[in-house]
Amino acid sequence: MRSLLLFPALAAAVLSCGISNAVAQPSQTTKYVYYTISGDSASKVYNAMIRRGPHVNGAKAYASTAATSSQQGKLSQGKACEIQDYRLKIDFVIRLPKVSNPKALTGAAGSRWQQFSQFLKKHEETHRSIWLECAAQLEKDVRAINAPDCSVADAKATKLWAQMRQSCSRRHDAFDAAEQKKVLKHPFVKMVMSQQGSHVAAAAVAVKRKKKK
After folding, report:
1. Which of 35, 64, 116, 201 to pair with 140, CA 20 to 30 A apart?
2. What distance in Å separates the CA atoms of residue 53 and residue 208, rounded to the nearest whole number?
3. Dihedral (C-alpha) 51, 90, 124, 200: value to the nearest 10 degrees?
4. Reduced to 3 DSSP states, what percent helix, strand and coil does the chain have, rounded to the nearest 5?
């Protein structure tokens, strides 16, 4: 994600835009991108996901969420330095599997695939929610900064940014660990295991953390 960049105010008298910490929410966009898979059985569809799915931190995954953030704000020096008009925006790209010919999967295989694809979508959208909760807290904390001079305010904001990234990463990791256990118990995956035996290639459910300077 993008490192902290604050833009100095042109004058100490620059006014804030009046955004309330209690009601402001981080700005976000979400783009859904699909990779196509095919097959006429649960096993074939699953194997196609393993072959064509995204890689996250070097590991195969069924789906992924890339989050790219940008920030803006002004350092305003008066009797003290405040960070005004601070906003954080996150652009999400959620990558999910899509069966090219849904009619090829019939009966239980088709219904269980639909359940699994919805499970993956909900999983990735939960990652998005985690990011937004972290971002909302960061916005609140940064807007509350009051320092004797702007170099101190900038340093405090940079520290808050680093702390948010670490704490949010831990939340993502904990969520993925809990969800990974659910995958093996999912009806679709259990059907695949019944068709392929115990030697089923596993993939991760994980979030991709994109960093930009």
Report:
1. 64
2. 13
3. 30
4. 45, 30, 25
Confidence (pTM): 0.80
> Is residue 104 within a helix (H) or strand (E), and if so which, with residue range?
none
Three-state secondary structure call for residue 182: helix
- Overall residue count recorded for the chain in this entry: 213
Encoded amino acid at 54, one letter: P
Interacting residues of 87 by C-beta distance below 8 A, sequence separation 6+: 19, 24, 26, 27, 71, 72, 73, 139
CA atoms of 62 and 56, how far apart (whole Å): 10
Report the C-alpha gap between 124 and 115 in whole angstroms. 14
Measured CA to CA in angstroms, residue 134 lies from 10, 110, 192 at distances of: 30, 37, 36
3-state SS, residue 66 = strand
pLDDT at 51 over 50: yes
Task: Report the sign of the C-alpha dihedral through residues 171, 21, 15, 146, in that order.
Answer: negative
DSSP state of 23: T
In this structure, what token pair is assigned to residue 114? Answer: 């639909």
pLDDT of 12 higher than 90: no
List 33's β-bridge partners, or say none: 95
Q: In the beta sheet, which residues pair with residue 32? A: 94
**Phi, psi torsion values for 144, nearest 5 degrees:** -85, -5
Looking up tokens 């953030």 gives 69
Give the span between the Cα atoms of 96 and 101, in whole angstroms: 15
